Sequence to fold (429 residues):
Amino acid sequence: MRWLTGNVEELSKEIRQEQAQLNENNELIEAQVREIIEQVREKKDIALFEYTKQFDGIELDSLEVPSEIINQAFEQIEPDVLEALEKAKENIVSYHEKQKELGFVDFPKEGIIRGQKIEPIEKVAVYVPGGTAAYPSSVLMNVLPAKIAGVSEVVMLTPPPKNGKFIPAILVAALLSGVDKIYQIGGAQGIAAVAYGTETVPKVDKIVGPGNAYVATAKKQVFGQVGIDMIAGPSEIGVIADETANPHFVAADLLSQAEHDTLSRSILVTNSKKLAQEVENEINNQLKQLSRESIARASIENQGLIIVSETFDEIFDLMNEVAPEHLEIALDNSLDYLGKVKNAGSVFLGHYTTEPIGDYFAGSNHVLPTSGTARFSSALGVHDFVKRIQYVHYTKDALKQDRDYIRTLAYQEQLDGHAKSVEIREEDN
Fold:
């Protein structure tokens, strides 16, 4: 891991520049994705079958996953995995139920009604990566908030398996969450299909879920035609720790994110040089025990950071500037420090609250803003699947009382038509 020193401003600037470099646009991918989207818009299902053969090496009989294959997954899944998914679902539902919003109605004065109503988005697509990046926990995290919000139709996209056999846990998680249909389409072509619709695949209103660079680029290019959740970058974790922290725990937590991807970033910020050295030593020991050692090692060596700072004020100022996806506070009395956190995707408090608790089981969402975007965005939740519709009602007398203010502002902005739409109602007497 690299050791960094400097003041908060210098360090945060350096880290954010590095974050930006990891998310730079690839012009070649941009062009390739643009072509794929155009082909899907023009040729629809035909393009999907062709791209599946070209990119996945598979000739499909059907774009939709047959119901018998989905139902068989319950017979194939290991009982302990099924139980864990069901328990995780309970926690995710109980947490996200509390995010449901209520509308309001307001009567500021006689003759005027103002309000806001909450309406669910009608159709949503959830993208689920295939291969080794197929995570059933992500199915639960993306679909359940949508269903709680009241989304009437949720479809799932996932690449067709190379050996013809889906991971049972993925299909079971989809059924447990309430997915309506599953399509075996991956990549940019899958994103294009749900953005514009084909003979088989429905057009949706919003697309959520993680994916590779082609999926992320496609989501960015279709934004505006449909809504999207976010453009996710590499996973990241920041750990704030002092001499009370266990270096074995801290090292394991940093590696829990490093094993995701070679570009994943793990940052330790501490006021203890002794702890920092112990954590670095422990990381070297624990790396050898990981099945994804090569990925985690590349991540730690190229993206991992250790920063030693003297005061907690500086430490929290730095972390708020970095705005990490995951933030662990490995301090005694960790709840006392929650008020210092201004920017983070999700916060894990105390020596025993490891980040994977949030990934899988606590109920909080694990779809989080990355690359510093926690400065202005939040974890995926029920609020991402609703619309807030404003409404206003004025009686004739109420308009008469306020018309001069409205006309004044309209003429100030040189929008005569706005003013006349008020004035014409004065003439209707």
In short: The first helix runs from residue 8 to 22. DSSP finds 16 helices and 14 strands in the chain. The chain has a mean pLDDT of 94.
